[in-house]
Each structure stands twice: as structure tokens, then as C-alpha cells.
Write a structure and sequence with these properties.
18% strand
């Protein structure tokens, strides 16, 4: 009886140790959602200016919330610190808070695009900044082989590197800050309408010797290459001869 109790005791210890070891080796499930966008950029090591802008405009929190709480993917173009340094002095300081938000959103596409998908996109692409119409926030992408070019209507940029990619997020390094037409472009002013001649104004000579209009207080005289003064002189000469 004593031997049975001892055997049962050792068997119990064996099963307990085996169960504990199996439980400890079970993998811990990975957290849902991609990494924090600022953490991704910090690993890149050359996006300090963009990170500061993302935080000050609160776009970083919006990006993280969207990626973690929805199924919608995003594509982010990340200008390097050198790209920001190449801007004209005072470029960012000249923008209002709302315009800074729009500038950041202009670097974000509302869908996740891989490098191969850039070859089949339809321009202009829609960004989080809004309207893609002429003079607003159009973004055009062309791809040739492994090179992807971006045109905003103000600057031309190139995708230099892939920083991060997963099923919902793609982050690409670009060599220029993407400046939208709405904020940095100048729309072409329409040509002014021709002004109407005022009454009593001096007529302009016709350059081709054709008909010139003379305003005489509501009545127009047309001369076909003959000066009006010569006609008046001939009339006066005829009257003097009759006298």
C-alpha cells in the first residue's frame, strides 16, 4: 500500500511539471494592428521634422486610430529631414494651423498601395486633404520599372525607399515635401475684358489702313484710308468758289 502511494505521488508530480512546461512554451498572441506611425518613422532615423509635424497637428493620433479601429488601409509618403531643410525659409511658419493639417494629409493616400500597384493607379489620386480638382489637391503618380515619380503641380518628387509595409499600411520615403497647389500654387488670373471707348475719345488709326470708327457724339463716321480733315477742306473750297 505504501509503495502505491509513493508511486502515485511521483506520477502526480511528473504530470504537474509536464503541464507547467507545456503552458509556459505557448506563444503569446501578437497585439492587433500595426506599429505606431511615429515609432515606425523613428526607426527610420531621418524623419524628425515629419514626426514633429504629425504630433503638432494631431494627425499621428488619427492615423493610429484609423489603422487600429478600421479595415481601411493607408499609404503615407514621408519626406526626410533634408527635404524639409530644402524648403524656402519660413514656408511652414507661413501656414495656418488648418493649412498645416492639410499639408500633412496631402501626404496620405486613402488606400494601401504596394510598389507594383503604382503602375496601374488612375490619376489624380485622392489624398486625405480632399478635393483632387484643378487648383485643389491633385496628386499624380507615374511609374517606370522600379522608379515611382510624384507630381503635385508645384514640385516633383521621387519615392526613394520603402520604410514599412504590411496588409494595411505602406510608408514610403520621398525626397521632396509634397506641396499642394491649393496652398503653394498660384492660379492663372483670367485675361481682362477689352475696355469700351469713351464718348469723345480720340480715334486710333487702323494699322492696316481699313475702316476706322470715329465717335462724334452718337454718330460714327467711317473713313476708308482717307483723312476726315481732307474731306472737310474740300467742302470749304467748293463753297468759296461759288461765292
Amino acid at each position: 500500500m505504501r509503495k502505491r502511494l509513493i508511486s502515485f505521488f511521483f506520477l502526480s508530480i511528473f504530470f504537474l511539471l509536464h503541464f507547467s512546461s507545456t503552458t509556459a512554451q505557448a506563444p503569446v498572441p501578437a497585439p492587433a494592428g500595426p506599429d505606431n506611425i511615429t515609432a515606425i518613422l523613428e526607426k527610420g532615423g531621418q524623419f524628425t521634422s515629419l514626426i514633429r509635424l504629425l504630433k503638432s497637428t494631431q494627425n499621428a493620433d488619427q492615423i493610429n486610430a484609423q489603422l487600429n479601429n478600421s479595415n481601411q488601409g493607408l499609404t503615407i509618403f514621408a519626406p526626410t529631414d533634408n527635404a524639409f531643410n530644402n524648403l524656402k525659409p519660413g514656408t511652414l511658419n507661413s501656414l495656418s494651423d488648418q493649412q498645416k493639417v492639410q499639408l500633412v494629409q496631402y501626404h496620405i493616400l486613402t488606400t494601401m498601395l504596394s510598389m507594383s500597384q503604382f503602375q496601374t493607379v488612375t490619376n489624380p489620386l485622392r489624398t486625405q486633404a480632399g478635393d483632387t480638382g484643378s487648383g485643389e489637391f491633385p496628386l499624380n503618380i507615374t511609374s517606370s520599372g522600379n522608379q515611382v515619380n510624384i507630381s503635385t503641380g508645384v514640385v516633383a518628387a521621387t519615392v526613394a525607399n520603402t520604410i514599412y509595409t504590411d496588409s494595411k499600411l505602406a510608408v514610403y520615403q520621398v525626397d521632396q515635401v509634397l506641396l499642394p497647389l491649393q496652398l503653394f500654387g498660384s492660379s492663372q488670373a483670367p485675361a481682362p475684358a477689352p475696355s469700351k471707348p469713351e464718348k469723345g475719345s480720340t480715334p486710333k488709326a487702323s494699322p492696316d489702313g481699313g475702316t476706322a470708327d470715329v465717335n462724334t457724339g452718337g454718330m460714327k463716321l467711317h473713313s476708308h484710308g482717307l483723312p476726315i480733315v481732307s474731306v472737310g477742306f474740300a467742302v470749304l473750297l467748293a463753297i468759296s468758289l461759288q461765292l
